[in-house]
Amino acid sequence: MLPMFARSALILAIASRHLAKRKRQTAVAIAGVGIGVGFFLAVSAMMIGSQNDFIERLINAAPHIIISDEIRSPRPQPAVRAFPGTIVEVHGLKTRNEVRGLKDWQEIAQAAAAVPGAVVAPSLSGAVTLRVGGREEPLGIIGVDPQVEEKIENVQENLSAGSLHNLETSQGGVIIGEELAQQLGVSMGDTVGATSAAGTRSLKIVGLFARGRGQFGNNGYVLLREAQSLTAQPFVINRIGVSIPDPYQAQMVAADLESRFGYKAQSWQERSADFMTLMLTRNVIMYSVVSAMLLVASFGIYTVVSTSVVDKRRDIAILRSIGFSQSDLQRIFVAEGAMLAVLGVLAGWLLGTLLMQVLGSLQFPILGRVEHLPLDRSARQFAIAGAASLTAAIIAAWLPARKAARVDPVDILRGAA
Amino acid sequence: MTALMSARGLTRTLAIEPPVTLVRDIDLDVSPGRFHAVIGPSGCGKSSLLYLLGLLDRPTSGNVEYRGADTNSLDGDERAQLRLEQFGFVFQFHFLLPEFTALENVVMPIRRLGRLSGSEMAERALNVLDSLDLADQAGKTPDRMSGGERQRVAIARALANDPALILGDEPTGNLDSENSARVVKIFQRLAHEQGRAVVCVTHDPSVAAAADVRIHMLDGAIERIE
User: Fold this and answer.
1) Are B115 and A3 inside 8 Å of each other by CB?
2) B188–chain A nearest CA distance, Å
């Protein structure tokens, strides 16, 4: 047998016998770590689960990147561009009225589509007034190509009636929110009047968005060419939605597109910056609480190991006289802490799994639907909890273990004689 | 005969206020195959001398040579290794590890040395136990043995790595006369039959009488050697 391996096995054997002798203390310390780890897993599963769920909604609710016909800062004047870095000042500028819409949108769409796996959906948004009987309601409309749109937005999921493809099959179809339909007193299949700069047309309701679906309920969806003719802007596109395979690349792709074409390209992260900050705060809170839990658990380990060191002073002295080195003694007591932590982590993983089962089985009826808590059960959290507990335990055990190494055998042997 | 271990000018002073000198200016040779008894009144520095010889303590001045090599220059790990391979300690109290059986206690130094396979270790430990009539105690924990048995297991543990030097600190101090006599016999055998050097600190006249060399100490110094 290799001497190093034999020595480690011996150290573990001594440490485990020490622990086995003090069953109650050992059990309490293991329970401390186990409960800490278990609740960490349950809490983090809920926190991360709800965060992922929320982010997924944010990501999928709308295209990952929306390029619109706005510019964040006015284009530099030709004189400034011609002499960069020199003193050219232009005062009293009067901006020319430009035709709305994205110029050269095909080129932008091509550039966006160059990202592997990207789906690009050009659309036109505008405003109309819906009129039914004496009632009038303003409505933002979005003209889309249903074939492409369904790939970048969860339209279908948010419908309570009809389908996005109804736009293609029925002439002059529109999808509006349930709330608006109720206000106007119309339902599926009814016809409403839509007034815009181009005159009045009649539209048929071919789909309804469910209540409480944010931006879907506030807009009406029509076919792209319908929107172009309703707003008298033939061939115009003023919005390009882009979805990419890795949503977390959105910010980078958006910045690139914006710098190349000058039009405002907004990533989902930018649109939801305030929510992202909130998530960060939540994470900071969660990890603070969890660190405190693990710290408290490591106090238990400190107590067990330091009592063990005091109780075993005679054994320490005799082991030293036999020929164990100071570092051997230190390792014995660090091993005690590590063993407690390993057992505690295993117990905690079990407890955490059980808690997640319980949490996952809870049902919450919300607006007629049965919702489950979104839980994140990834191995990552198990690994984090395990590594953090083990580290905390080894530090907690190392402090008293140093004392074990420093015990002077002569003091003990003389005192006991 | 050349000495296995020799002490020259060995002095140990505790750096407390006022300083206390435990052992002063000791010159001593320890020879293989001989049973040395260190005797003297309580507090005369017998045990302190033994701890210095056993490299558990470091002298304030002077040195201990083992097999002709100076031990002052060894660091803690090297001294521990020397104790493991060459020395065997027996104390007044048996100091067996209470969680382990007799066999496991004896195997412990062998495992720490790590030169034998698992079965060789157990075989060696059983042989040592058997040589001390303890074969039937192998599976027992210390709390289920008599005082004499425990002390003999402690001796077995001291012999586990076949040491050249046995150091005893009142090894019969807690034993009745029958068990004391047994231990003395064992120590004699270790010296005379097995050629080990035995150094035994004792109050017990019967131990002193059985020794080949008697080192009388008084007030930290050697009074006479006979």
Assistant:
1) yes
2) 22
Spell out, as residue ranges, where chain B has pLDDT lower than 50: none
Residue A233: predicted pLDDT = 83
Q: Cβ contacts (< 8 Å) between A16 and chain B: which residues?
A: none
Tell me the longest C-alpha to C-alpha distance in chain B: 54
The CB density around residue B224, as the number of other CB atoms within 10 Å, is: 9
At A346-356, the pLDDT tens digits run 999 999 999 99
Query: Whole-angstrom Cα distance, residue A284 to residue A57?
Result: 22
Residues in Cβ contact with B4 at an 8 Å cutoff, skipping those fewer than 6 apart = B30, B31, B32, B66, B67, B164, B165, B197
Dist. CA A384–CA A285, nearest whole Å: 16
Q: Which residue among A1, A324, A416 sits closest to B112, beta carbon to beta carbon? A: A324
Domain boundaries, chain B: 32-58+74-225
Q: Which ipTM value was assigned to this complex?
A: 0.91
Structural fold of domain B32-58+74-225: Rossmann fold (3.40.50)
Given an 8 Å threshold on Cβ–Cβ distance, is A315 in contact with B95?
A: yes
- Put simply, whether B99 touches A (Cβ < 8 Å) is yes
CA distance B157 to B111: 12
Distance CA A28, CA A33 (A): 9
**Torsion angle of the four alpha carbons B110, B146, B49, A402, in this order, in degrees rounded to the nearest 10:** 60
Question: How many Å apart are CA B25 and CA B8, to the nearest integer?
Answer: 7
**A1–B118 CB contact, under 8 Å:** yes
Q: List chain B residues with CB under 8 Å of A413.
A: 47, 51, 56, 91, 169
Instruction: Yes or no: say if A257 and A67 are a contact pair by the CB < 8 Å rule.
Output: yes
Cβ distance A417 to B118 less than 8 Å, yes or no, reads: no
pTM score: 0.74
Per-residue model confidence (pLDDT) at position A268: 86
What's residue A76's pLDDT? 65
Q: Give me the phi and psi of B158, to 5 degrees please.
A: -65, -30
